[in-house]
């Protein structure tokens, strides 16, 4: 398989965390390990399919660790790796910017959304 070539650091970062859900999943995992159902509750609006897909992609890149406990019933927990924690720390200022400008962004989105 051919290695992907990035044009800059932002290109690489957005590739890893791109999409609507991954940053929200990272944030849901920032304080503790969570089971699948807990993650689904902490990421409002995500479908089960998208959560599974996002977790698999994040695990493949090394952001998320999946721990399977061999119990009855089986238990699976997800947590951030050091790599995932470092990305979360990098995203924190972006989240603060979003908090600061959330109202303005929401108002602009309402104005430009097509009716119908």
Topology (SSEs and partners):
Layout: H1 9-17, H2 22-28, E1 34-35, H3 36-42, H4 48-61, E2 64-69, E3 75-80, H5 82-112
Antiparallel strand pairs: 1-3, 2-3
Provide structural commentary.
The protein has 116 residues and is of the alpha+beta class. It has a single domain (9-112), classed as Winged helix-like DNA-binding domain superfamily/Winged helix DNA-binding domain (Arc Repressor Mutant, subunit A, Orthogonal Bundle). Helix content is 59%, strand content 12%. It has five helices and three strands, in the order H-H-E-H-H-E-E-H. The chain has helices at 9-17, 22-28, 36-42, 48-61, 82-112, and strands at 34-35, 64-69, 75-80. The protein has a three-stranded antiparallel beta sheet with strand order 1-3-2. The longest helix has 31 residues, at 82-112. The protein is globular. The mean pLDDT is 90.
User: What does the radius of gyration come to?
Assistant: 16 Å
Mean pLDDT reading: 90
Distance between the termini: 44 Å
- State the CATH class: Mainly Alpha
Tertiary shape: globular
Uncertain runs are none
Question: How would you name the CATH homologous superfamily?
Answer: Winged helix-like DNA-binding domain superfamily/Winged helix DNA-binding domain
- What is CATH's topology name? Arc Repressor Mutant, subunit A
Number of strands: 3
Helix/strand-derived category reads alpha+beta
Number of helices: 5
Strand order of the largest sheet: 1-3-2
Series of secondary-structure elements, N-terminal to C-terminal = HHEHHEEH
CATH architectural arrangement: Orthogonal Bundle
Roughly how much helix do the residues carry, as a percent range?
Answer: 55-70%
Strand content: 5-15%
